[in-house]
Amino acid sequence: MCECSSGQKERKDLVTALSLEQVERFLTQLSDFATMNKISLGPLKNIVKSILLVPNGALKRNLSSEQVRADFIALGLSEEKASYFAEQWKLNSPTLTRLAVGQTLMINQLIDMEWKFGVTAGSSELEKVGSIFLQLKLVIKKGSQLENVYVELTLPQFYSFLHEMERVKTSLESFS
């Protein structure tokens, strides 16, 4: 990808895999930088947050390197610097996308799923009698705890859900 000094490599790691330890290390480096250059830490943090908004937004919107370059130029960055950032975006965005998807999936990780089909035997609404439904039990890992989530779907809702899951699977496979 790119050759980096050890300091640049550390900063790159902070962007690609945000662990608590790495965030704390980054904040320490930011504080040291502010002290060394005699600037206030608060405004520096705000500047860094603002700088990170552009790549974060580009990642969420799946922008091309040319779109990122145009955004930076619109924000007042010189053509040379915007082109350099666009080149780096072109090189690193596939990796950042894969990592973002991985982090997203680990927040509420699906551990297990059970389902049961049923038929409505009685209801106050005559047209509902005899309709097919599906009960889902999802076991989701939230942090270190497991949580059971129960969902009841009509047959059309189930097929819609199945279709969406197939689309998600296809999208995830395109990243690997």
TrEMBL record:
CDD domains: Commd7 (cd04755). Residues 109-176 form the COMM domain. GO terms for molecular function: NF-kappaB binding. GO terms for biological process: negative regulation of DNA-templated transcription; tumor necrosis factor-mediated signaling pathway. Pfam families: COMM_domain. This is COMM domain containing 7. It comes from Cyanistes caeruleus. The lineage of its organism: Eukaryota, Metazoa, Chordata, Craniata, Vertebrata. The gene is COMMD7.
